[in-house]
Amino acid sequence: MTAPTDLRVPATAPATVRTFSEIALPDAVRDALGEQLLGLPDPNTDIDRSTARLLQIFATLPTDVLQQVLDFGRHIDTPGVSLVSNLPVDPDLPDTPSDGGPSTAKRSFVAEAVLLGLSGLLGEPMGVLTEKAGQLVHDVIPVEGGAMSQTNQGSSVFLNFHSDIMHDVIGRYDVANPDFLVLSCLRADHEGIAGTYYADARDVSRALDPEVLETLRSPLFRLNAPGSYVRDVAGGQDVLSEPVPMISGHAEYPEIAISANGVHPLTGGAREALDILQRVCREVAHSVQLRPGQALLINNRKGVHARSTFTARYDGKDRWLQRTYVRRSLWNVRYRVTQDNRRVHY
After folding, report:
1. N or C terminus: which one in the chain shows less Cβ crowding within 10 Å?
2. How far lies 116's CA from each of 126, 239, 324, in Å?
3. Model confidence, pTM
4. Which pairs with CB-CB distance under 8 Å and at least 24 residues apart come from 98-104?
5. How far apart are CA 26 and CA 62, in angstroms?
6. Which residues pair with 159 in a beta bridge?
């Protein structure tokens, strides 16, 4: 496998196109922000009130920092991934949970507040019943039984380039999916080698031969439903979308959707193009090894992401990330809303 390129050096994009950006909080801003967040309660107890309060707090960021985050979410020509650094962290962190769920030993909620505060600048956090039981804050943790899986529980296999998609009865899994992911680091892996990769569809499209790109833009692929849906709802059986393209939309501002749990090409040419797509994603990808106090803003439509292998020890000190799904608006996915929670969908 060709190693993804370094995050700070786009592999193929011309100088006028930036597919990665970096935002760093000044120390004084980090400290002032952390002081406000440390006194907040668990945001999950009243999520709408919590997100309102967090919006107030994060609106006090320096204007240039605030604009960078807002511009990331609102413009078509901005980077597809942004690394935010020097964020406040919890003063005491309990052991990494072993079951992939929230920690019951966590006594402060700075990490959750950072995650939801950044998310609120991009849009509205959402949950899905078949992903982390509908929780709005996802704990992304290696789980011993899932070490070899193409899911966020894995560690022993390379998690292929993918979008976070949603099974949907309409047959399209790339409609109700998140517009953005926010991925925040609470604890790095033991060796500090776990890499998160992002391949922007603009870089990918420029790197592909025209005939391969044409195939990938044709409805010759069926996406498999997410692993959690297949495991928990479908009894392990594949649940495929209608035929869709891998890359779609405006040539200069394309959208890409790849399912982590498998793509079924409908022709031999489509299969070959899919293999080339994964290879090119690796060649043009940005990479980062997340550390505590850092978060990635990820556009889930402009690009696809992946994760390297790393060694999980299941000793309470394993890699611990938190993630949110974010929609610019919840309105056009209202057909999926559950009765008990207007932010949580089927």
Report:
1. N
2. 11, 31, 7
3. 0.93
4. 98/141, 98/143, 98/144, 98/314, 98/316, 99/143, 100/139, 100/141, 100/143, 100/146, 100/152, 100/153, 101/132, 101/139, 102/135, 102/137, 102/139, 103/139
5. 9
6. 307
CA atoms of 15 and 36, how far apart (whole Å) = 39
Owner of token pair 């709408």:
48
Structure tokens at 200: 């922007």
Question: pLDDT tens digits, residue range 241-253?
Answer: 999 999 999 999 9
Which residue's entry shows tokens 């107890």?
45
Of 7, 320, 22, the residue nearest 153 (C-alpha): 320
Q: Spell out the SS3 assignment of 160-227.
A: EEEECCCCCCCCCCCCCCCCEEEEEEEECCCCCCCCEEEEEHHHHHHHCCHHHHHHHCCCCEEEECCH
Consecutive H or E run containing 345: strand 344-345
pLDDT in tens, 80-136: 999 999 999 999 999 999 888 899 999 999 999 999 999 999 999 999 999 999 999
From 321, 259, 258, select the one nearest 293 (Cα to Cα).
321
Q: Are 73 and 81 in contact (CB under 8 A)?
A: no
Vertex 244 angle, CA 277 and 287, to 5° = 35
Amino acid at 92: D
What secondary structure letter does DSSP report for 70? Answer: H
Output the six-digit token pair for 171: 């047959």
Helix (H) and strand (E) counts for the chain? 8, 16
Nearest to 188 by CA among 80, 113, 96, 300: 96
Mean pLDDT of 214-233: 95
Cβ(343)–Cβ(134) under 8 Å? no
What is the pLDDT at residue 61? 98
Structure-token match 């592909």, residue found? 208
Give the β-pairing of 286-288 and 124-128. unpaired
What whole-number distance in Å separates Cα of residue 111 and Cα of residue 54? 12
Phi, psi of 78 (to 5 degrees): -85, 165
Contact 208, 201 (CB under 8 A): no
